[in-house]
Structure formats: structure tokens, C-alpha cells
Amino acid sequence: MTTQFIDNKTAAQEYIDSVFAQVKAKNGHQAEFLQAVEEIFLSLVPVFEQHPEYIENNILSRIVEPDRIVSFRVAWQDDNNQVQVNRGYRVQFNNVVGPYKGGLRFHPTVNESIMKFLAFEQIFKNSLTGQPIGGGKGGSDFNPKGKSNSEIMRFCQAFMTELYRHIGPDVDVPAGDIGVGGREIGYLYGQYKRIRGAYEAGVLTGKTPGYGGSLARKEATGYGLVYFVEQMLLEKKESFLNKTVVVSGSGNVAIYAIEKLQHFGAKVVSCSDSNGYIYDPEGIDLKLVKEIKEVKGDRIKTYVDYRPSATYTEGCTGIWTIPCDIALPCATQNEIDGDSARTLIANGVKFVAEGANMPSNLEAINLFLENDVYFGPAKAANAGGVAVSALEMAQNSGRNYWSFQEVDEKLNNIMKSIYTNSKEAAEKYGYPGNLVVGSNIAGFVKVANGMLTEGVY
């Protein structure tokens, strides 16, 4: 295509529409991936109006096709000496900014579409952090729930035996995600070291502090989310003090978001797991939640056994019927749909920020934007985890070990920069106050410019 065809908005939109049509034709069965692509594409019309060189070099068609997708069999033996078989994935999407970087997810819902959507989002999230990391994601349909430590160890060893040849400190650096915590990372890294015969600490992040891991990594996504929301509140000349907050989830993101929210004076009244949610109008007892989830590994419904002020409800969608000032979805993708968004809006929500990956569908996002709810999208608001993963990589490379306070301060500064860059990009391209457009553009432009400098390959 040449510049004579892109002198107006219609032509830029036509280019974007034509590329999305091609993506749908190739990936029509991958709903999650198509949703992620459409959400990005909707923001990019003003960018292509100002940058015809992106069309001339067909940047969109190149950026939506992964560099490679690795799919492999993982055969392992359970405690009954029965051979089990799972499928593993690693999607290496884009390494223009730095080595592929993104977590590993062990969950029965894992498939190629989910891996591609997560890896695609990771490109722009990682770009926003300002750290030298590209976008990737991986995982398996293995379910660690109900498995013994020995079974999880054998699975992780089998998984890494297949994955190791595709990763490295300067090639691809996985981390944890749903179902993959410090225990799993330890087993994965131990197997990598055995195979490679070398101490390459930078090949995985999320390691145990003191053994190549970074302090504040466990807290990073939750803390980072709250630091981002703090900037949103400051923009509106408000604070967390006395705000009622609904948080979904009860993993690391939710727990440490609650911890930081309570530190800032907010009143958090809910959390959830995949079975249902608790509502505690007196405020969540975080010590109790940590005991249930981190020590006992129990279901969140047991919370009500200790707190007479709380109620438990089966199913998760009802959590968004709780009136609140701030809603922070921290559980999983597409947990807020149009109906939930309408209920939140009717009940007076003013701020929504995403702690999970793509927890609001497009209808919900549009409703928030149309009703003046200040909305923080995932690729900006939940970038704290990967930001500290990049800081872990830096510590590994320099043989350094920073204090919790040092890492936390760097994290806070990164989240402030992400907010500022997203806000300024939205203003520059004609969408003031729209952090969805701003974060998409800020993340995209950096990667697109890198692809231009590298030429076509």
C-alpha cells in the first residue's frame, strides 16, 4: 500500500478492518485471541492516520502473527505409577523490544487461543513498562489442584525437559501465572539446571528470594495495580481513604491488592475463588484470607466459618452486584460482562481497574467509558508483575540483590510512568481520559517503531 490511499480516516480504518478480517479468517475458532486483537485494533485508527509508514510496512499483519508457537507432549507418571499425558505450549510472539517474557499457566482451560491472547497482550504490557522485554506466554492444560507435591514435581520436570531448548536468559524468560507459583518455578528451574549444567538464574523469574528471586515479586501485581489506581484517583483529586472497594479473586494479585488498599485506608468488602464469593460489610480480614489461601490452601467459603459478619454466595458473577466506589477484577478473563458492568454503574462505581488479564469484555469496557467510569485496562494496570520480573532479570544479570524497599520503590515509579505515558498518548491522539486507547497506543508505537528499524523479515 502507498500513502496516496491513507490520507484520510476512512482509509486508515479500511486498512485496520482488512487486517482484522484476515486475522478472523485465519483464527476464527480462537475467540479469546480475536477479542484481544479487536480491542487493540479499535484504538489504532488515529495512529495510522499520523503514521502512514506503518501501513507501507504492513506492521499490523506482522504484529498479529506470532514469531513461533511451540506445542509439545508432556508425559509424566502419577503416584499410582500411571502415565498421564498433557499438552504444553510456548507462544513466542514478539521480541523486538527484548527477549520474550511472559508467564506459564497450568490450568485445564489452557489452549492455543488463550495462550495467543495472553502472549499478544504481553507484547504491549511489557512495552509499557519501559523495560527491555518482549512478549510471550506459555503453559499447559495440567491441573495442579488435587495433585501431590511429587506429582507436580514430576510434571514440572517433564514439562521443562521439552521446553528448555526454546528458552534462555537472552532468548525467552518464562515466569509464573495461574497454577504456577514459587514451588512450580523451583521445580522447573531445578530441571533446567540439571539439563543445562549451568547456573543461568535469568532463565526464569518468580524464583524464591535468596535463590535468584526478587523480593516483592509475589506482591508486585497487586501492589502495582493499586499504585496505578492511586494515579487515577489523584487525576480526579481523590484518594483511597474511606472508599469501598470490591475485589474479585483470592490469589496473589487479589491478596496483595487488598493488602495495599487497606494500607491506603480503603475498605475492601469482598474476594472470591472459582466457586463463589464472600461479602464482608465490615471489611475483609486479610490475615484470615491469607491463612485460608496461603497456609491451608482451602476454599474461600470457609471464611464465613470465622467471620459472622460475612456471607458466602455460590457463583462468581454476583460479586459485581455489591455497591462500591472502586471495582478491581483480579480473577480471570471475561469475568465482567455487559450486565455486570450495568449493575456496577447503576450502583455508583466511579473507578474500575483490571488486575487480571482481560477480565472485562468489550461490551463492559465500552459501557464504562460511555458512563464516565474511569477505567484502567489490564495491560497498564496489572503490569506490575512483569515489571518486577524484569527487575529480577536485571538483578540476575548484575549478580545483585535489592531490598524489598528498593524494588517496591522502582515498581511504584514504573506504574506512575505507565499511567503518565498512557494518559499522554490518549491526549496526543485525541482521546483525553481514555486509558484504554492511551495504553494501547503507547505500547504499540514503541514496538511498531522497533519493527520499522529492523526492516522486513
Automatic annotation (TrEMBL):
NAD(+) binds at residues 221, 252. The active site is at residue 137. InterPro entries: Aminoacid_DH-like_N_sf, Glu/Leu/Phe/Val/Trp_DH, Glu/Leu/Phe/Val/Trp_DH_C, Glu/Leu/Phe/Val/Trp_DH_dimer, Glu_DH, Glu_Leu_Phe_Val_DH, NAD(P)-bd_dom_sf, NAD_bind_Glu_DH. Transmembrane segments: none annotated. Keywords: NAD, Nucleotide-binding, Oxidoreductase. Gene3D superfamilies: Glutamate Dehydrogenase, chain A, domain 3, Leucine Dehydrogenase, chain A, domain 1, NAD(P)-binding Rossmann-like Domain. Residues 214-455 form the Glutamate/phenylalanine/leucine/valine/L-tryptophan dehydrogenase C-terminal domain. Signal peptide: none annotated. The record marks 177 as: Important for catalysis. One of its GO terms (biological process) is glutamate biosynthetic process. Substrate binds at residues 101, 122, 125, 176, 389. It holds the Pfam family ELFV_dehydrog. CDD domains: NAD_bind_2_Glu_DH. One of its GO terms (cellular component) is cytosol. GO terms for molecular function: glutamate dehydrogenase (NADP+) activity; nucleotide binding. Belongs to the Glu/Leu/Phe/Val dehydrogenases family. Homohexamer. PANTHER family: NADP-SPECIFIC GLUTAMATE DEHYDROGENASE 1-RELATED (PTHR43571). This is Glutamate dehydrogenase. The lineage of its organism: Bacteria, Bacillati, Bacillota, Bacilli, Bacillales.
